Structure formats: C-alpha cells, structure tokens
Amino acid sequence: MDEDRKQPVVLSVDIGGSHVKILTSAGGEPRRVVSGPDMDAAAMADAVEQLAQGLPFDVISIGYPGPVVHDRIVAEPHNLARGWVAYDFAGRFGKPLKIVNDALMQAIGSYDGGRMLFLGLGTGLGAAMIVDNVAQPLEIAHLPYRKGRTFEEYLGNASLEKRGRKKWEKHVGDAVEKLTEALEPDYVVIGGGNAEKLHRLPEKSRRGDNMNAFKGGFALWLDHDLHV
Predict the structure, then answer these.
(1) Whole-structure pTM value
(2) Taking the chain, what is the end-to-end CA distance rounded to the nearest angstrom?
(3) What does DSSP assign to residue 176?
C-alpha cells in the first residue's frame, strides 16, 4: 500500500480530430472539449488547462494523432491546425510529460501480453504493435494497399462514407488478413471510433475500447515492465 501511495497521479490527454479528452489515474469521469481543424498546440494546452481545473496530478501523458519520436512530435497533424512540431508542452504545463502516438497509447491500454497488433479506425488509420511488452508505433496508413491507393484510403472514415459499411467492412477484414500475414500477431485489437460499426470481426480479432487510451497513458508512467 505504501508503494501505491508513492505512485504519481497521471493526467492522460487523448487528442483526436473531433475532441480532446482527459482523465486522471485518480479516477472520475473523462472530460472533453471540441477540437477540430482550428485547434493548434497552444489552443489545446489552454483547453486542457481549463478542463483539468480542480484535478490534482503530478505527470502528464499525451496521445498525439501523428508521428512521435522520443517524446517529440515530428510531423503536423492531418485534422488539426498547424503549430505542433516545435511546441514546448513540458514548459507550458510545468510538469514531467510523455508524448506518444495516439494509436500507440490506446494499444498500450489494450495489451494483454504476447504479440498484439492494434488498428485504430477513425478519421484516418492508426496502428501499433506490442511484442512482449515492447511497444512500437506503426506508420502503415499511407502504405499502398490496392489499386495504387493506401490503407487509409480504404479503411478511413471517408471510405466508410463513400463505399458504405459492407464494402468498408470487407476491406477492413482483407487488410487485417494481409497485416496478420506480414506481422504474425497472436491477436488483433481493433479500436477507434469506427470499430463499433463492424458487424463481424476478423479472425483472431477483438473490439477495443476508447477508454483504453487513458489506461495506456497511465501505463506510460506506472507500468515499469513496459518499453516504449
């Protein structure tokens, strides 16, 4: 119990194309604010500060919708405003801080051991792989899938709206089969906002839960067996 009391309280921040959501490891209910194409890093930081009023926390985890290397954002997001790459989040919040790709954060919260492939179906396509507690983001969204088009062009939200649920779901199953052959996971977790629209899950797959993004943010600080 003494060790539990020494653990830091983590503020987990999940940045999405439509909302920014926060939750602390002390419990409670998630708080959210609308994001969208006009939100840059400074606006996000202001919004999080407002959302977190009255919530004590020691450290911060941020799930960012784009490439992150060693807690550093290396590319601007597709669905938010520019101004993220050089932003000093640690200086802005004045707390120890870790940043990872948002799909990786949800993958960590979904992990049950072994070799897991995570796919996040939302506005775009997020992906991550965890093998024996070693977590790695995968930038597969813009790799060619078929007919000169990318995985994201067939699995993202625009494809769902254009092709309809049945055809989109067929492509999801086909993509999972191809990625499973290449990466050899023990199981696949399909998360993101559109996961619930799948009527049938591919073989060796289970549906994720968006709350797992918060769990992943907590684990970045509290799970000492995890390697990111």
Answers:
(1) 0.92
(2) 27
(3) H
Nearest by Cα to 175 from 214, 199, 149: 149
Backbone phi, psi, residue 151, to 5°:
-55, -45
Per-residue pLDDT of the chain (228 residues; tens, 9 = 90+): 344 558 999 999 999 888 999 999 999 999 999 999 999 999 999 999 999 999 999 999 999 999 999 999 999 998 899 999 999 999 999 999 999 999 999 999 999 999 999 999 988 899 999 999 999 999 899 899 999 999 999 999 999 999 999 999 999 999 999 999 999 999 999 999 899 999 999 999 999 998 999 999 999 999 999 999
Instruction: For residue 103, count CB atoms less than 10 angstroms from its CB and return exposed for 0-12, middle for 13-18, buried for 19 or more.
Output: buried
Q: Name the β-bridge partners of 13.
A: 22, 62
C-alpha 135/C-alpha 44 separation (Å) is 26
- Where helices occur in 144-211 by DSSP H, the ranges are 151-155, 157-163, 165-183
Query: Which residues pair with residue 64 across a beta bridge?
Result: 101
